[in-house]
Amino acid sequence: MRFASGAEPKVMSSSNGQASETSPLLPKVLSENNGELIAPTFDPGAGLAPEGADAFYERDEEEIGNQQDANGGGDDLERQRSNDSSRLKQFQGDLELQKKMKYFLPAVAIGVFLASADQTIIVTSSPKIGTDLHALNNTSWIATAYFLTLTSFQPLYGKLSDIFGRKPCLLFAYVVFGLGCLFCGLSRNMTELIASRAFAGIGGGGMVTVVSIILSDTVPLRERGKWQGYINIIFASGSAAGAPLGGILADSIGWRWSFLIQGPMCFIAFFAVLFAFKAPTRDHSHWAEKLKRVDFLGATFLVLAVFFMMLGLDRGSNVAWADKYTITALALCVPLAGIFLYVEMRVAAEPFAPGHIIFERSLVACYLVNFFAYGGWMATLFYVPLYLQAVLGFTATQAGVMLIPVIVCVVSGSLVGGFYMQRTGRYFKITVVSATTPVFALISIVLFLGVIQTTPLIRSIGIIVSLSICAFPHGVTVTTTLIGLIANAPPSSQAVVTACSYLFRSLGSVFGLSLASTVANASLRTYIARAIAEHPGAAPPDVDPAQLAAMIRQSLDTIAKLDPEFRAVVRQCFALASRNALACQVVFGSFAAVAVWGIREKALSR
């Protein structure tokens, strides 16, 4: 018979001696080495493998060799064998380093714990810092400056660790972070403190990212999720310990020790990794030659684009979207991002983000799931405690205790996702379920925020149960999408895609929180102005209505001083504002549930 295209099917001899066919109607497979389209063989008796089976890597080298030798492709065969060898190494991990995991994990645990604790340690100490430095109005920049540089430099660590090595990059991150903390503790004014926090963020961006990359090098891909779960336990422990530790130190020996104590801890982490982690040398060339390989132009535009985007989003949600600095920052980030893409695609010899990483379907899908999932999660995690305190009258300590089961669920989800992938070798189905479930949990939270009329106790329990249901699949998604990225990326690019995943998580967190803050602040401003207009006697004689509205929005302590009747009205205003903010996150989370369908299933082992 003749095909519609007029092409005759080609009959080949497969490695098992059976006849196989190729046809223009069958899908082609793209070689990662030279971009050549290779038609996959088809055994009529075996059926077509699903798209996610990654049949290209399952093919026998002899069959590939027969095809390429027929075309005179001896060099292509060598490159293909090298690529297959890299994939096989990814499946197996580094057997020598696996024997030393009992030393490596405790060594890096110190740095992971410090990196996570540092993000929350200033939450309770910032009021004292602002008071001591006579700049209470600028305390938000203590956290913002750190987060800006942390996010901006995170994606650079992937390629830099390929060039200079994993261990040197991790040690560099420890040194920069430790010095930054030391400078913070010695700061004489708020300007010096903010600059020191920004410097520390450069190191903080690598302390978790490089550890994740090293784990991908070391453990078999099928077990990678389980080990990520262990790291997430350490990270969650640091986040949970940071806030109370910062408060205790600020109240006892002074806020400066919240930073100074991290210097010796970084010193310990540095030497623990130096002696416990014996990584193989990837490149024996001179450091000057390695320096020439760094894409400084691309790095500059990437850092600037991310920095201005983060700055614009943060300032827009906290100051005003019409503010000239907000508009300028957001206007600059777009052309800077465009220039970065041009440099990576047309100029850079060794780009930080090659085209096959930027535009590959599965990788983009994983990045988008991370972006939207983290956006919805962080905004929810911020506004639920605010609701518990402003509306239900919980103290900060009580609200924190209520979140303990939520943190447990996040960590448990990460571990369950890891063990599931180790047992089944699959990640697509569980990722679809885990990316979709939070949407329904978010809807439940919105209903408990005021749509469902019930007692405060039942409402608070309903909110926390719903948030826990949201937390568990979120923990699963964090782990499975990371494995999906590594499995779909070429083995030589796994460090870059891992670093980029952390970038999209951070960007999603800021974007989601900025969106929620904008909706909540606008709603609260409208509701409170209306409430004050309807209750003329609510404001004290020496406070005008506009000033009272500002005081209510800026401090929860003001609510407790209000007349009981008007206090109930104000609490309802906060309830409506919180509900509106989280209703937006339902839409945000829905985008993650849609994006997840773009991920391809790939084999995690042979």
From TrEMBL:
Give UniProt keywords alphabetically.
Membrane, Transmembrane, Transmembrane helix, Transport
Membrane topology of the entry: Multi-pass membrane protein
Record carries keyword Cell inner membrane: no
In terms of superkingdom, the source organism counts as Eukaryota
Q: Where is the Major facilitator superfamily (MFS) profile domain?
A: 104-606
The record lists the membrane-crossing segments as 103-123, 169-188, 194-215, 227-249, 255-276, 296-313, 325-343, 364-388, 400-420, 432-452, 458-486, 581-599
One term under GO cellular component = endomembrane system
Give the chief site where it resides.
membrane
What name goes with this protein?
Answer: Vacuolar basic amino acid transporter 2
Which chain positions lie within coiled-coil regions? none
